[in-house]
Design the sequence.
């Protein structure tokens, strides 16, 4: 089981929108040096919605090659078409991903039975550990705990990223009596510390993009049950947890990394660079976390 701080890695881009692979390599090295426990490549934060299939797989392949088995790499392979999700997941398997993260099908809003059959079909089709991903604020569909409980019994489905940001949902999932090998990850940085203290295994994090060492330390303290230390560390990140979402993700986090000198400012339409009126707010959050002087 993968535990701790799993960064939902951005995909760096040049001003013309092309993928900046040199910056991607540098980010991977930085994350490993800073203690990030695993990398999620080409998830929502990695702009999966606007990378074409060839780019998508190449970014995953490049991250895997650069990591060179030092930490796990999870590939984002979700789609609102089951056939497409199978194809992306198989491609990720072929380039050496350790697992795949699959968002619930978006826009077509399947019922709970449709979600169950979607994930079961993928698990039956590809021999790669699968992590479910529930983020109703983006997809328009909420995968309920009962459906998670059913899917946790399917061979090959090994975990869930729950991004509803609701501690009531966290408690409901923990009350299901899921298999001990089934990993539960927060997908909401603001509630990640409390989720881990309650029994989750880690955080698939946007904040970790800019404060990887501190996010790792928060997860370690929370996993050890040291609530006071975890809260003290997490307090430094509180502004980032909120202000990296003042505009749609990954707009603020990409600007933050650009401000830190780690990536160019590129982002793809229909997303646009951060509004200048938001600069000072994000800068203040970066300084509070100690990652910008």
Sequence:
């Amino acid at each position: 089981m993968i535990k701790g701080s799993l960064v939902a890695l951005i995909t760096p881009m040049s001003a013309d929108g092309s993928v900046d692979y040199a910056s991607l390599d540098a980010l991977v090295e930085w994350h490993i040096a800073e203690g990030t426990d695993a990398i999620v490549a080409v998830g929502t934060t990695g702009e999966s919605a606007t990378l074409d299939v060839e780019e998508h797989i190449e970014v995953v392949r490049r991250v895997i090659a650069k990591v060179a088995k030092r930490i796990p790499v999870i590939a984002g392979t979700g789609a609102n078409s089951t056939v497409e999700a199978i194809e992306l997941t198989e491609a990720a398997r072929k380039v050496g991903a350790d697992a795949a993260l699959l968002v619930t099908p978006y826009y077509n809003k399947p019922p709970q039975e449709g979600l169950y059959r979607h994930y079961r079909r993928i698990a039956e089709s590809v021999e790669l550990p699968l992590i479910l991903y529930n983020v109703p604020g983006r997809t328009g569909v909420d995968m309920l705990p009962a459906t998670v409980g059913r899917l946790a019994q399917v061979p090959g489905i090994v975990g869930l990223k729950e991004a509803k940001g609701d501690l009531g949902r966290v408690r409901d999932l923990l009350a299901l009596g899921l298999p001990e090998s089934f990993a539960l990850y927060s997908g909401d940085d603001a509630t990640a510390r409390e989720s881990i203290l309650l029994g989750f295994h880690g955080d698939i994090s946007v904040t970790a993009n800019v404060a990887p060492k501190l996010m790792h330390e928060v997860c370690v303290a929370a996993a050890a049950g040291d609530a006071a230390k975890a809260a003290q560390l997490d307090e430094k990140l509180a502004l980032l947890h909120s202000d990296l979402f003042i505009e749609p993700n990954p707009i603020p986090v990409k600007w933050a990394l650009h401000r830190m000198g780690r990536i160019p400012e590129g982002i793809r339409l229909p997303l646009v660079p951060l509004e200048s009126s938001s600069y000072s707010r994000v800068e203040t959050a970066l300084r509070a976390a100690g990652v910008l002087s």
